[in-house]
Amino acid sequence: MKIDRLLAIVILLLNRRMIQAKELSERFEVSVRTIYRDIDALACAGIPVVTYQGAGGGIGLSEGYRLDRALLNDEELAAIVTALRSLATSDPEADHPSLLLEKIQQIIPASRAEHFRFRTEQFIVDYSDWGGRGELQGVLSLLKQAISGLHPVHFRYKDAEGRISSRSFEPYTLVLKHHQWYVYGRCMAREQFRMFKLIRMREVSIAEDSTFVREPIVLEELPWQQSWNKPDNQIRLVLRFSPDRVHLAEEWFGHENLEEEEDRRVIVTCRFPENDWLYGFILSFGVHVEVLEPPHVRDRIRTMVQQMQHNYDGTT
């Protein structure tokens, strides 16, 4: 859209003393003539654009021109910059966070630029993986396109038990939770809101010939959390951690929730939904945790460990 391009040009000019029309035309994939028409439109709108002729010439703004930053203080702006950088790490293909970062940075006076940079580097959130996941990025891109255009999607889904089913789905929002991507929306067959893990989705396609009407939901209340936190869906779990893994118990459950025994082992009482994730979570602590309650969870962990031992018996 032209208005988006005009805003982007202003932001770039605010952050650079001068830029050539050819560079702008290549960046926005339009002709140089179109760029000059954009410059004329900005001038008519009151933006003090200056064109410099000659070998070292280009397009710039009048010295001292800046956007008004009265609505936000430095602390608020630093928080926004941190959030934008986090968003950029969660989706490497997204280019809008970098543009917004430029917009914010240009409204900081030069006298406070170094201090502002220091504040924005005190806290970094990196959601990216250690390795590449090209297939996942492709699914993310398709779902973003479907959400933006209000198009249903079709896909095959393999659940935690390995069962495969075909789904038709109205995607509402993408959710990054505990280093995993999910999509939340309405399952068309069951007429219920569900959340699906992206790495379990296969053969994702967009129904570009149809659209859906988005129902009003309160995303601020994180509706996908509601079923997880329902008391009816949770069990009371009592775990005992060995002394050399107390730090892991503190990380997961908090120091205030630990009950220390005489031999320096600690007891943790918590509540979780009982599902495959729970058993995988318990097993991730290896020999350093013991399930004390409830008995059926203790028995199932014992059975799983025995099955694991059987897998390795007689191997070379």
From TrEMBL:
What's one Pfam family the UniProt record gives for this protein?
A: WCX
Q: Which UniProt keywords apply?
A: Transcription, Transcription regulation
Name the PANTHER family on file: PTHR34580, WYL DOMAIN-CONTAINING PROTEIN
Q: PROSITE patterns per the record?
A: HTH_DEOR_2 (PS51000), WYL (PS52050)
- Put simply, this protein is called Helix-turn-helix transcriptional regulator
User: Gene3D superfamilies under this entry?
Assistant: Winged helix-like DNA-binding domain superfamily/Winged helix DNA-binding domain (1.10.10.10)
- Domain HTH deoR-type: from-to ranges: 2-57
Starting at the broadest rank, the lineage of the source organism is: Bacteria, Bacillati, Bacillota, Bacilli, Bacillales
On the tree of life, the source organism's domain of life is Bacteria
